[in-house]
Amino acid sequence: MLKLAIHGGSPVRQTMLPYATQSIDAEDHAAIREVLDSGWLTTGPLVAAFERDLCAVTGAQYAVAVNTGTAALHAACSAAGVGSGDEVIVPAISFAASASCVLFQRATPVFADLCPDTLNIDPEDVARKVTSKTRAIVAVDFTGHPCDHDALRDVADGLPVIEDAAHALGAQYKGRPVGTLQRYTALSFHPVKHVTTGEGGAILTNDPASARHMRSFRHHGIDFDFQERGERQSWEYDINSLGYNYRIPDINCALGISQLKKSVTWLARRKELVALYTELLKDVPCVETPHVRGDCDPAWHLYVVRLNLERLCATRGEVFTALRAENIGVNVHYIPIPWMSLYANMGYKRGQWPVAEREYGRMLTLPLFPGMHNKDVEDVVVALQKVTNAYGK
Ligand SMILES: *Cc1c(COP(=O)(O)O)cnc(C)c1O
Asked: Which of 58, 197, 297, 329 has the smallest number of CB atoms closer than 10 Å to its CB?
């Protein structure tokens, strides 16, 4: 048996393979150089152009670009009318922002459990948690696999569903693209996501009143932006609701426009890498590959496997540390949100989300990004084989 790197053996790779990273090419560089000389660094024509491109790739009628995915979720909560005293149902496992957007609006997140196959929010548990105070539902397409959006819309019974599609740009549900499945769809353009603007986000909607609200929300609640004000030759403006500075610079949008052109190719590459993982991981008995529902075509932001811990004499943490020593940048997405001290201090108690809390203990994110080579996938699998053999029962 090979000596693990953690025990002084030589690692499977000489350099660390990250779990995700951006792809930047010469076109991206040229786009940034051009915008710097264009005269508009923020709130200019490239913001609108990026929004048009987002509509074109998703089929949504309106896109409102903002400076982070978190701001996008906050804007969607505001447009959905979430406010003090309201409850918003959120999955127990997601990135923190899926729930903090509810707190920003002084409302209460109510955590729902997950479906055991997809690890997406479970519509049946949502149904149990709807009360007269429920104002909206946040549905995260975890790893890029769409939630059961029809079931969620039925359960919501008219309440707005905010689809957190930070992982899901390019995914399809029952042949329909992510972007028009729910009233609001929030995207993130953080460097690890499908396309990047450095930092950035957007909300997609088909509701013109919501789009108008969110444009004002990202700009202090002012009723129109600099460009319109310039065109009107007036200093006057009004503020009719509380807004923030969530504006995205044109510099970021220049990058986003250039990146979006490659999103279809990149998604195809992600799918090839996933197919290779599925094939090679067949021979690793301690590893369960992700489940895909027949009516979904996921966007594969993350590749999350689950360890069969009963076949190992190691914990998930030990497997994680051993793989990192082999220079495989594994990760864990995510710690249950209500386990965070912020929530514990608000009175949320562990043990209320049996699926999420059990599955969290055996989840492991393997590296996946479009710039990966087939050899990188092979390295990950070789390292997994090495580590699970060493720790096998
Ligand atoms: C990345 C992410 C966000 C927020 O994105 P930022 O752009 O980093 O603010 C929200 N929800 C989920 C599920 C994410 O993965």
From this structure: 329
